[in-house]
Amino acid sequence: MLLIKKMAATILCLTGVLFFSTSACFASVVEINISGLSNYELAAFSLDISYDTNVLSLESYELTDQLGSFVEEDFEAIDDSDWTDDGLLSLNISTYLMDFSNQADEFVLVTLNFTVVDGADLSSITLTNILLGDEYGDAIPYTVSGTAINVVPIPSAFALMGFGLMGIAGLTRRSKN
Q1: Which pLDDT does position 22 carry in this prediction?
Q2: In which band, very low, low, confident or very high, does the pLDDT at 23 lie, cut at 50, 70 and 90?
């Protein structure tokens, strides 16, 4: 279950969405989306992402290109994030861009790549200390909503489906005799 701290305001929406669970290691991708930027230009954001290290291991994260390039030579955006092994990723992102005319009203803010501990079936991810800012450093109001995340062990699901198909085949065969 994705647990997200509710914040008062009305414009933006951050959501976590599970996209797949595969392989024996159970890789999971969670995207944190932002929407409602039609009247705002997002130039900086800061948020803490907490997760249970007994269930999830953060392998990597990928930031949006909507704030510019994070390549050092381009000098468009800075990633001053802190990632610890105790289940906390503190994202601190800012941009030097002045033209936001190409910034979408809705986009993926960050993609989190997790490995799920074998045998785990439910985890929580918490977003806290959320700050969103425009190009002048003014705060952007927002709301937060969440989506349940269930880790589905694909090999087990295939085995269960296989047993079900064998049972149906057996019943079909028995009814023909």
Answers
A1: 40
A2: very low
* Class of residue 149 by CB neighbours under 10 A (exposed 0-12, middle 13-18, buried 19+): buried
- What residue type is 140 in one-letter code? I
Q: Would you state the torsion angle of the CA atoms of residues 20, 56, 146, 113, taken in this order, to the nearest 10 degrees?
A: -50
pTM for the whole structure? 0.68
Distance between CA atoms of residues 85 and 58, nearest Å: 9
Distance in angstroms (rounded) separating the CA atoms of residues 38 and 105: 5
Report the candidate in 121, 173, 114, 117 with the shortest Cα–Cα distance to residue 150.
Answer: 121
Q: What angle do CA 135, 41, 96 make, to 5 degrees?
A: 40
Per-residue pLDDT reduced to its tens digit, 31-66? 888 888 888 899 999 999 888 888 888 899 999 889
174's enclosing H/E stretch is: helix 154-176
* Neighbouring C-beta atoms of residue 99, cutoff 10 Å: 8
